[in-house]
Structures are given as structure tokens and as C-alpha cells.
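Researcher: Quick test of sequence recovery. C-alpha cells follow.
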């Protein structure tokens, strides 16, 4: 399974970005997809998740500003980020939870940099 992120970049505070993550390869039993981020010197943290049933959840720090969505086949997931703040600066990683020949596990993208200037 390969996850490819796109849409990161440099934006001023208050601006918007839309991240995309496309999944390819053979995977089944997908429970959900999500976005995580890691800022320099900090641990990777959950930003938003969407389950195969369409339920969503968000980190408190992004509620009301970010929106996660996905297609029905769970092949693609998007993260709409509005009202960006400098503290949103991080590498954003796409995550998929599902099964391949080695069992149920996490799959990760390579990450896309988001930089918010003040």
C-alpha cells in the first residue's frame, strides 16, 4: 500500500490549504484514514480521522478550523485547513489502518510540509 500526500506549502496566518492523500495498492478491511502532524522537537500527534463509516474526530486544537473528508471507497482523503495559525506548522502525514498480506496495521505516507507564517 502506498499513500501519497500533496497540497502542503507556505501560507500566511489566516490562510487556507487543502491536503490530499491518495492510497494505492491492495488493502482490505480499512477501518479509517487520518492525518497526523509532527512539528520540530515534538511528537507526532493526531489531527483528524475519518472512519469507513464516515464518522470523524478532530484534535481540540483544530476543531472548527479543519475538515476531513474521504471518498466512499476510502481511496482518497482530504484535509481542508482554514484559519491557519503559525502553530499549525508541521509535517503532515497521511495514515490508513487496514490489512494487507502481513495483517492489520498502520500505513503511512511520506509527509508533506505545511508552514504558516505570522
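Model:
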Amino acid at each position: 500500500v502506498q499513500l501519497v500526500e500533496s497540497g502542503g506549502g507556505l501560507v500566511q496566518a489566516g490562510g487556507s490549504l487543502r491536503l490530499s492523500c491518495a492510497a494505492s495498492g491492495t488493502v482490505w478491511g480499512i477501518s479509517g484514514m487520518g492525518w497526523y502532524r509532527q512539528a520540530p522537537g515534538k511528537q507526532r500527534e493526531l489531527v483528524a480521522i475519518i472512519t469507513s463509516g464516515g464518522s470523524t474526530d478532530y484534535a481540540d486544537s483544530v476543531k472548527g478550523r479543519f475538515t476531513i473528508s474521504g471518498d466512499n471507497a476510502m481511496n482518497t482523503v482530504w484535509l481542508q485547513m482554514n484559519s491557519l495559525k503559525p502553530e499549525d506548522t508541521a509535517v503532515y502525514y497521511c495514515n490508513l489502518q487496514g490489512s494487507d498480506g502481513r495483517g492489520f496495521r498502520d500505513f503511512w505516507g511520506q509527509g508533506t510540509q505545511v508552514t504558516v507564517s505570522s
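The CA atoms of residues 29 and 53 lie 12 Å apart.
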